[in-house]
TrEMBL record:
Gene3D superfamilies: Phosphatidylinositol 3-kinase Catalytic Subunit, Chain A, domain 1. It holds the Pfam family ubiquitin. Residues 29-88 form the Ubiquitin-like domain. PANTHER family: UBIQUITIN-LIKE DOMAIN-CONTAINING PROTEIN. It comes from the Eukaryota. CDD domains: Ubl_ubiquitin_like. This is Ubiquitin-like domain-containing protein.
């Protein structure tokens, strides 16, 4: 295999890998985070992101420790850490979803 073929194969593999990653991550979804103080903040996440990732973003942006967060949809469904957003009822890429962030005593 000459260098030209190697580079073409490498580029094709890179393109395929990028498509695979995009498919795994899923579509964008809009989530409005309602913080304990009542303020609301819109965010965009990939449907493949985990609830734990969302909690990490909340911790970094709003200084609420991950271990003290409880995330609940406006329908009252608790979001569980290991699940992806695609697995959570009421979260779709079609419409913004309100997620209430509350602090637990843990």
């Amino acid at each position: 295999m000459d260098l030209g073929q190697l580079e073409a194969t490498k580029a094709a593999w890179g393109d395929e890998r990028a498509k695979e990653i995009a498919q795994e991550e899923g579509q964008d979804c809009s989530i409005v985070l309602q913080l304990p103080d009542g303020t609301q903040h819109p965010h965009t996440f990939k449907m493949g992101a985990t609830v734990a990732y969302v909690k990490l973003q909340v911790e970094q942006a709003y200084s609420i420790p991950m271990g003290k967060q409880k995330l609940t949809t406006s329908q009252g469904k608790t979001l569980i850490d290991p699940l992806s957003l695609a697995d959570c009822p009421g979260i779709t890429p079609d419409a913004a979803c309100l997620v209430v962030v509350s602090e637990t005593g843990e």
